[in-house]
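A further point concerns the way the authors explain their paired sequence and structure data. Each protein is reduced to its one-letter sequence and a matching series of backbone shape codes. An entry of this sort, consisting of the sequence and the corresponding backbone structure tokens, reads as follows:
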Amino acid sequence: MKKFLIISMVLLCTYVVFAKTDKREKITEIPETKTLRKITNIPFKEGEVLEYLIHIGVIDAGTARLELKAEGKTIQGRRILHSVGIGKSKGVFEYLFKIRDRYETYIDSEGIFPWLFIRRVDEGGYIINQDYKFFQHKNQIDNGKGQLFDTPEYLQDMLSAFYYARTMDFSKAKKGDVFTISSFVDNQVFPLKIKFVGIEDVETKTGTYNCYRFNPVVQSGRIFKNENDLNVWITNDGNKIPILAQANILFGAIKAEITHYEGLTNPIAKVK
């Protein structure tokens, strides 16, 4: 779970080459036993691309890219969005700690919940291969290894949680309010909690943006010194895209900063 806390910073601001996968055929029609939800305010669409530069201290350590694509297949007549998150190390970190990671999620375009999650991780030789199939109509997950798990309704995966969080209404949030998103991580339900800090302008290399600031609540003492050592800034507009994420950890500092965006649904809250 320690790795998820670091990676979630980048997935909430994103992270994580090109591991080949042939899992698309697993998206098939499945019997529906309940009416699936619909979310009316969806702040993203196919064609959205977000790119980030990852810093460790003053060193440029890696890059991350999230692309949202339309998927030709449907489930129960509902259109699917396919998100691919790719991250890799760069520069000196290519030699010190080579990273080649790929995350994919196939999301219901109306309900913003996952049907299929694919994870291919290679971090310095640490390998993870996961294929989770979500039976949202039954509140179950098949982990691809012969195990079936009962889950809460509309459970997210590590990547779909990023998109679902953007559909949440923060306009009336007060300082200290905590929002919880439950995700399925490493064969268990993980409640990701984000605490609202306030609204402020944040300066980056691409400009200054008006943003919501959040503290994803973390456990102190292992990687983080304090529970508020992880901060994420999300644009205060109809897109709610992560602009900056910073983490102070026991062995230094990590920052993920946006470098490029395109295909946004709404005007961005750029101050200058």
